[in-house]
Design a protein that fits this description.
This protein has four helices and two strands. The protein is globular. The mean pLDDT is about 85. Strands 1-2 form a two-stranded parallel sheet. The chain has one domain: Rossmann fold, CATH 3.40.50.150. By secondary structure, the protein is of the alpha+beta class. Strand 1, helix 2 and strand 2 form a beta-alpha-beta unit.
Length: about 110
């Protein structure tokens, strides 16, 4: 993507460090967090960092294992994302939605 001129800089890693968040402030149109929050020691701080890195009107893409999904309910303790210590947090979708809305985000 960089060679094609579609991105200036990619950041891979945590966003909760205030120095990183400040360096990336308003830099991105899109921040993707695919299975990131479930591995973060402080998911709320990671969300704050991601929102700081977004430009006004930017998009935050989040994907998480859903502990209330049909597969999770069917498989119970054998549902793969329950495997610890890989997943530190498995927030229900409604909790994530509430956190995003309280931060002023429009959830699609």
């Amino acid at each position: 993507a960089r060679a094609a001129g579609r991105i200036e800089e990619a950041h891979i890693g945590h966003l909760s460090d205030p120095r990183v968040a400040e360096r990336l402030r308003g830099r991105y149109d899109v921040v993707s967090m695919f299975h990131h929050l479930s591995h973060a020691s402080d998911p709320r701080a990671e969300l704050r960092g991601a929102l700081t890195a977004l430009r006004p009107g930017g998009h935050l893409l989040i994907e998480l294992p859903d502990p209330r999904s049909a597969f999770a309910l069917l498989l119970g303790k054998w549902w793969l994302p329950h495997g610890q210590p890989r997943h530190l947090h498995l927030p229900p979708a409604r909790n994530l939605r509430a956190a995003l809305e309280s931060a002023g985000c429009t959830v699609l």
